[in-house]
UniProtKB/TrEMBL annotation:
<protein>
    <submittedName>
        <fullName>GYD family protein</fullName>
    </submittedName>
</protein>
<dbReference type="Pfam" id="PF08734">
    <property type="entry name" value="GYD"/>
</dbReference>
<dbReference type="InterPro" id="IPR014845">
    <property type="entry name" value="GYD/TTHA1554"/>
</dbReference>
Amino acid sequence: MPLYLSRFSYTPETWARLTGHPEDRSEAARTYIESVGGRLHGFWYAFGTHDGYNLWEAPDNVSMAAVALAISRGGALRSFETTVLLTVEETLEALHRVEQVGYRPPGAQGR
């Protein structure tokens, strides 16, 4: 199954609710991904640009998109970004296919 890395940031209101009533949100995240047949591999909070990170496994992009949309529409997050992660083997396969693409840079005539 594909892996996905999500970066999220809570709204100030969400942080206020969590400081008043602390809870382990990784359990909620686990429930969301398992509802589509996936698995939560990790849930971390962080300092910096994003408040936290999740590593998920989902059956496909549509399943992960459904989870991301459900979480995003809840209103507790200021931002939520998800990146599809490629294995080394998938990246090597892509590298071998590069020449098939026939890319031509803008303004390069006849290439």
